[in-house]
Amino acid sequence: YYALGPWENYCDRHDGVTLGRYTTTVDGLMEHYVKPQTTGDRGQMRELVLTDSNGYGLKIEAEGNVSFSATRYTDSDLMNARHEWELVKRPFVYLHLDGVQRGIGNASCGPNTLKDYCIKQQPVCYRLRLSAVK
Fold first, then answer.
1. How far apart are alpha carbons 113 and 103 in whole angstroms?
2. Can you give the pLDDT at residue 22?
3. Which of 4, 22, 91, 102 could disulfide-pair with 43, CB 3.0 to 4.6 Å?
């Protein structure tokens, strides 16, 4: 992928990440939190190529502010599991392409998300080009 990396990042978490080309697996995108949750977001995506072991897959090119995450679990799987060992990998990849995301700051251990990182009610525009790859 060509995006912010190599680690997970969100609109309010850009320290230690740089825009570049990175290679990993879908499983390598997952962060191992004490409580399973949404994970692995990569911001400022320009290009993402997902392939199987034979090299067949999908290339996504983006214009605009797009982030992505990919996992083998549904949002419901992550929300309902209390521990990572309870998760059962699905035979599919669940891909999220987001035009905007709220910052991850929350009120559980401090102030809520800072106003600059909340989602503003305004139009969001981006373009995606999807093509097959071999």
1. 6
2. 98
3. 4
* Type of residue numbered 47: E
Please tell me the total number of residues recorded for the chain in this structure: 134
Contact yes or no for 103/113 (Cβ under 8 A): yes
41 within 8 A of 67, measured Cβ to Cβ:
yes
Whole-number Å distance between alpha carbons of 13 and 25: 22
Spatial strand order in the sheet of 57-63: 18-21, 2-5, 47-51, 57-63, 127-133
User: Strands 67-71 and 94-98: what pairing?
Assistant: antiparallel
Which residue intervals of the chain are DSSP H helices? 75-80
Q: How far apart are CA 25 and CA 71, in angstroms?
A: 10
Among 67, 51, 39, which Cα is nearest to 128's? 67
Question: Quick one: what percent of the chain has pLDDT higher than 90?
Answer: 70
The 10s digit of each residue's pLDDT in 85-118 is 999 999 999 999 998 887 776 555 666 777 777 7
- Residue 50: HSE in the Cβ half-sphere, 13 Å Cα cutoff: 17
pLDDT of residue 107: 56
Residue 123: strand pairing partners: none
